[in-house]
Amino acid sequence: MDDEVMDLGAYESPEQIAPDMVTLSKLPYSRWQNLLNIDVVKQQRNKPKEPPSAPKAAPFFLPTTLGLDPEFVKLDDKENVAPSKIASFKDFQLSAFAKLLNSCAESSDYGPVFDRLKELGPSSVDFEIRGLSPDAGGSSESLLSFLKAMHSGLRTRRDFELIQSYLGLFLKVHADTMAAEEAFLEELVSIAEEQQNSWKDLESAFNQSVCIVNYLRSAVL
C-alpha cells in the first residue's frame, strides 16, 4: 500500500468556498477596471489624428404635403406634412439584453444575466447598460430589473468586483432617472444596506489580517 500512489485526480477549486465569503470573479482586470471611465477611454481611442475640416454642403429638403401631387408646405400649414421617415428611439423594441433581464426578473434567477455580461467586453457592457434607458429604447421595468439583478448578485457574494463596476456605471448613467422616480428608491435602499453589510465583513477581515501582519513584524522570536 505504501508503494501504491493513489490517483485522486486534479483538484478543482469551487467557485465559492463558503456562501458567506466574498468571492471575486476570474475575469481579467481589463474587463471591469475601466468601466466607470469607459467614456474617457473611448474619447482617447477615437481621438482624430487630423484637425477637423469643414463639412461638405449637405442636401437641403423642404417638407411636402401628402398626396399624389405633393406641394411645398407653408410655415403656417403643418397638418398635412408628410411624416418623418426617421424612427425615434421609442419605435424600437427592447434589446435582447433588456428582454433577458425582464425574463429573469419573473423567475428571480439572474444567473443568465451575469453569464451574458461576462461574455461582453467593456464597450459592449456600456452599450447594453445605456440601452436600458427609456430614452434609448429601454424601459423603467428594465432599469428596475437590472437593479434587482445586482442586488441578487450582492446577496450571493459572488463576482464582487464585477458587480461593483456594473453598478457604478449603471448609477453614473441613469442617476437622473433614478432620482426622478420613486419606484427605484426601495430597491436602491436595499442595495445600499446589502453593500454596507458586505463591506463590514470585508473590513473586519482586512483589519484582522493587518493586525496579524503587524504582530508578526514586531514579534521577537
Automatic annotation (TrEMBL):
Taxonomically, the superkingdom here is Eukaryota
Which GO cellular component terms, listed alphabetically, does the Swiss-Prot or TrEMBL entry include?
A: Pwp2p-containing subcomplex of 90S preribosome; small-subunit processome
Residue ranges annotated for the WDR36/Utp21 C-terminal domain, each copy included:
15-217
One GO BP annotation is: rRNA processing
Q: Which Pfam families match?
A: Utp21
Q: What is this protein called?
A: WDR36/Utp21 C-terminal domain-containing protein
What organism is this sequence from? Amblyomma americanum
